[in-house]
Each structure stands twice: as C-alpha cells, then as structure tokens.
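Box 3.1 — From sequence to structure: Carbon-nitrogen hydrolase family protein
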Amino acid sequence: MKEPIIAAAVQAEPVWLDLDASVDKAISLIREAASNGASIIGFPETFIPGYPWWIWLDSPADGMRFVKEYSDNAMTSDGPHMERIREAARESNIYVVLGYTNKVGGSLYMAQAFITSDGELQGVRHKLKPTHVERTVFGEGDGSDLQVHETPFGRVGALNCWEHFQPLTKYAMYAEHEEIHVASWPAFSLYEEAAKALSPEVNTAASRVYAAEGQTFVIAPCGVVGEAAIEKFCDTDMKRELLKRGGAHARIYGPEGSELATPLAPDVEGILYAELDPTLLAVAKSAADPVGHYSRPDIFRLLINRNATPKTVNVQTQADAQPAADLFEVE
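Predicted structure (token representation):
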C-alpha cells in the first residue's frame, strides 16, 4: 500500500429475501460510494438477500416457512445477478467486497466476493464455521477460503462476523500480510439483554482488536434491522422483544486501533467514509508485527490445510468405478 485511498463501509438494511431488489440496492450503494471518491466498498454479511433472522427467533420447524423463499433468492457466483454487480464495479471503477448468500447446488454458504475495479471476480470465500443456529441454514467453508488478494492499492482480505473471534483464523490472515480487511457483520440488535456476546460493544471491539492485533485497516460494514425486517420475521410480541430495530454499528479502524470515521446512528442507513493512509501501517508495524519481529516462530507454528473441499459429491456408476485394487496400494 503506497498511497492514501478512500474506503467505504455500508450501513444499510437489505431488501429481505428479494434477490433482484437486493442487487439493485447493492449497485446503487456501489455507485454512491464511487461518486464520493471511494476506491473500495465493503458490504454487510449476507447483504444479498439478507440475514436469516428467523433462525434466532423460533424453532427450526417454524423457520421452515422461510426456507424455499430464502433459497430461491440466494445468489450464485456465476449467474446474471453477479454479472450485474461486476459490471457496476467496472463502470464505477471501485473494488467491491460483497456479502451474500451463495447457492451451490442445493446448499447455501455465507459468502464474500472480491470484485476488482475492472469487474473481475478475483475470489469467493465462505464462512469457515457458521455461528450457532446459522448451521441450520449454511454449510462450512474450507482452507481455500482464507484469502488475501493483491490490488493496485494494497492487500485485501475479509472475514464474516464471529470469524473475528477465532484466534487461529485471524492469525492465518495476518500471516498473509493483510493491509486492508473487510469485517462484515449482519446487525447487533438481537438478545440485547440476555446475551452480551451479541452486543455492539463486544462485536465492534472484535473489529477494533483485529485492526490493532493484525496492524491492518479494518472496514466493518454492518446491516440495519428496520421496519421491513420486523414485519417479515416478527409475527409475535416475543419475537419483537428479541429482535430490535436498528442494531447497525458500521465502523472503519486504523491499523493502530484508531477510529477513522464518524459512526452513524444505529437505525440510520448510509455509507461511512475514511481515508486510509499507509503511513499508519508503518507506524503500527514498528510497534508490533505478530508474524514478524513480534512473533516467536521457534516456539509456535500454525498448520493450515489450504485444500478446497468439494462442495458436491462426485458420483460414479458401478461401470465407471475403478476396482479397489487400483485405488489402494497395500504393501
């Protein structure tokens, strides 16, 4: 990273379970950020077609009524909707880190796409371990999803939500010498009194610690729970108590933990902007580099399996299958 750039963090409500409208809104935000001089924009977790809040509000049996609609409005990584977003990135000359639900065959994954300012799909990653009840909806990622990409303005990586609570995942990312990190979050408006680990205080702290610990700029976009979400997911008084309006706490942090953008109110939609000055990287790294002068590789090692796990089963017919003697060599 050689020159200062402007970064943008989205704080917005998805268009719930509506793929076409969600893509329209994402494109509008991409164009808005680019018109304000941003070189990179980050989107919240599963912004397209929205985070499945019903999984936290009732039983799996009750949530089954949303399953088909959610699956039908999930986005593939190679379909026409992704093409529209790639074209918007190219036309606007902006790098996009997009949070979306990725449909692979019949399975869903919590995905982040890296789209260059030329409209190239540089990479797609999946959340390594969906959190808690998210595992009733989403599959898991693999070691190939720990991605840091070269760009004209710096090395860019991303993680979703509580992946920022996983020490080994974080260290694997630091080891790739990230300079700009997108920390995507859905919203912090659930179980406000009962579960402090889900609170904005804890989760914004996780983004800030990531910045200071890894000495990287952190763009932390965050979703909004608005009236449309309440109408969609809360059909009882109890559910309206569990899921509150607002919950949006987008942030942008410097690599030494400074807050670089003035936050919006938790119920307000908009985009945060901040200048990322690479001088801060040099200053932060001079104090502590967890994979360099502040590490002890003679004591600690991290083993990473970066192989991709097949997302679908390769089925062979009996006629095509090889004999066991050809598959296994036994001495």
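Summary of the box: Residues 323-331 have pLDDT under 50 and may be disordered.
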